[in-house]
Queue: 2 jobs
Job 1
Amino acid sequence: MKTIALVGAQWGDEGKGKIIDILSETADMVVRAQGGNNAGHTVVVGDETYKLHLIPSGILYKGTVCVIGNGTVVDPKVLLAEMDALKSRGVSPESLKIDARAHVILPYHLVIDELGEDARGKADIGTTKKGIGPCYMDKAERIGIRLVDLIDRKTFAEKLKRNTAIKNRIIEKIYGGKGVNYESVLAEYNAYAERLAPFVTDASVLVYEAVKSGKKVLFEGAQGALLDLDVGTYPYVTSSHPVAGGFCVGAGIGPTLIKEVLGVAKAYTTRVGKGPFPTELNDATGQRIREVGQEYGTTTGRPRRCGWLDAVILRFAVRVNGLTGIALNKLDTLSGIEKLKICTAYKKDGELVRDFPADISELERCEPVYTELDGFNGDISGAKSLADLPPAAQNYIKTIESQIDCPVLMIGVGPRRDQSFKVVR
Ligand code: GDP
Ligand code: IMO
Ligand code: MG
């Protein structure tokens, strides 16, 4: 059996949840290894829609072990609410395993996320305000509180006391905000700890043993390559590593254990939050894509910025993730647009740029160079193979492949499980 890592190839929201759900049918284990409830992964099963933020999308299959790895940040309140919501819909979260080393998002992280964004003014990042960045800051500063600390009453009380004192000074003296109350946080989080304790384990061992014994393990990426803290469009990024390498650190395993890396992309480009976006469409076509594709954030409800497919970005994603294939979603959304454009390179100060720039100020000066293709019409949402697609849609796929040196292995023509097909050649 192969271990497959699935990553977002753009700025997140590429439809990773749907693809993970499809692949989970035959998986034994699904692993999240970075990010937290800034993610919003949608899975549509028949008439039911599930929006998962922290729990791996494999949870919908009975018997699939779902792991939240050490590289994630866990908001216990959100996690328990998500578990309860699933339970109330008949989905058991009992197969969940959470690594003891994962860091805990606490109320002061949420306050600091909000105040930090306000303080940045016009230079704000547009974070999801879920406390993700401030929690990872504590991890890097080595004052973070981990799950293993949370479930040990004495340790938690001590660390929380120390951190609350530090954080309240920052909140009150630097930002002029209102600090959090140690006693009430302690009582509230002790109750969460009691409920979460049975799920806490050494997930690195579980994942390693599953792979070694030939089980099929899927790694579920959150966010996307361009939101990676190191290689993304810094500072307009998240605080973790959504690229494939992030799975190794974030699940506590080595790179030789991952055999395939599937990048999920949309047939166009979207982004939520701030930062440069070369192929953004601030016109009727962008508006049309937003409405037809229902491009509104799963986590924050914010309208997503929409634009043409950018092959420079996909080439970047192929490189930084070592992609072995692409799952291309939302082809159906483009139906009815007369002419489609694919950005093949950028023009910067009169020069042709083929590789995604490392420097954001350079990216800001980049103008897209497009190749224009005939669009396609009609309802393609029932397509089951490449041959079912209109010739212009097939040509669109072929053009993408010729630009990125990576095969398109799956095509999405609708949000449901049965609206993706494997490309057979
Ligand atoms: P994720 O964060 O990568 O899991 O993606 P989101 O769930 O945030 O956003 C993707 C949206 O597109 C969701 O509403 C999905 O139900 C939807 N979706 C996924 N694949 C397709 C597709 O092929 N066609 C259409 N029309 N919608 C899709
Ligand atoms: P999924 O897994 C899209 C973006 C935010 C913001 C930046 C930093 O659903 O694809 P953060 O709260 O992480 O500090 O915000 O990252 N962002 C996402 N955008 N999809 C996501 O996740 C995202 N998670 C974070 O909008 O620009
Ligand atoms: Mg999402």
Job 2
Amino acid sequence: MKKYIMALDQGTTSSRCILFRKDGSIASMVQREFPQIFPKEGWVEHDPMTIWSTEIAACTEALLKIGGSWDEIYCLGITNQRETTVVWDRKTGIPVYNAIVWQCRRTADYCKSLSEEGYADLIKNKTGLLIDPYFSATKIAWILDNVEGARERAERGELCFGTIDSWLIWNLTGGKVHATDYSNASRTMIFNIKTLEWDKELLDLFKIPESMLPEVKPSSHIFGYTAKSVFGAEIPIGGVAGDQQAALFGQCRFEVGELKNTYGTGAFMLMNTGEVPHITDGGLITTIAWGLDGKITYALEGSVFVCGAAIQWLRDGMKLIESAQDSEYYANKVPDSGGVLVVPAFSGLGAPWWDPYARGVIIGITRATTKYHIIRATLESMAYQTADVISLMEKVTGIKISELAVDGGAAQNNLLLSFQSDILGIPVERPECVETTALGAAYLAGLASGVYSSLEDIRRNRKTDRLFTPERDAAWREEKISKWKKAVARSLQWSE
Ligand code: ADP
């Protein structure tokens, strides 16, 4: 009797496994942290073997914990930290170098020279991305240029490149399948998101041999089966998507104009734009949300650098709170921020301001200002920054957003979500299951293997934990937003 869908959630700091029941409820969850490797300032690596071993350990433990058996698993889905790059030997499966993590800045100079040589428009038009060390292309090039013999081996067809999903698929299938899905491919900066092919011109630019690349498949698709040597059972791998895209799917944002925001350390907003890739400026990225039923769904992605991190700053830097949860308790001690605004531009501002020289500002302080006002204003800054990105998305797509679905650690904060709803003037909905990333991978896998018959079938699983509706009028909103913009203006170009 099949009972569970197994979701592998391979993140930046931990490998997790969640077993979901068909109704989307969680039967078991295990998390294994693994070491971050910092060889130099600004460099970040992971050991690919540790990623693999912690991930299968998490899977095995998740099943053991509930006394389950492998025969009870319908299928398996993978979601992963995006862009992180692994290159390994096709014969032995041994990586030629550590995984270069998305955060790693080692290729910053290379990216700068690409921008100076005028490649920004070409790259944006083909891949939807900004030239940045985040994305895989320059990381692959770095490995080929810096690991002894790597380029020759790659040219002889002996090496494979993959993002973490590919690395896991390869290992799960005992080296039989070298594949990725559209959502992950769209983060490499060598995948053409319009023609849906690895782009020859970009491969030439980055000097990456095509033989290294995985086959690109729909996100909901049977990629292969786990080797008996891995789990003792041949389980279909039915769903693969990068973490943010998987969260959009897990939030059931299947329709054009549907949007989710994840309030984590930073904030990640993805808006479903359907079959249209809106290529745009102003710091938004165009990405593939998923490939499903022979169709590609695109998304616009915007991020806020400092979101929950501002709460960490209140706790660790300012020592105004003891824990992140306290922020709500203290903020509730005052009816509003008393005219105080905090712009947490600690390392510049992203969309729509896009100013690396901006720095943080606390403004509007009077003799009556207390720590409660500052805490409240810091929480409110998370909502303002989210609203800025959403209004940019509305502007470039011409789509009016009617509701925001939320998840991430700080989405537990009711005061934040209630203010978010007031500032946007639309409902904000927090689902019961906040493990939306893993859930998205499980849903994609469940669709491919027949556990679910349709998107409607999946949507029926969705339960609302709480709906926050706006309690303020447009005049209040306009005044608040104009004050916020004034505060942001004070923060811009500060460290230039
Ligand atoms: P990540 O995946 O980026 O590590 P999480 O989704 O786990 O982040 O969220 C953690 C972040 O959310 C932290 O920055 C923390 O300060 C913030 N956070 C957690 N709980 C709350 C809360 N109740 N109110 C406000 N912020 C919170």
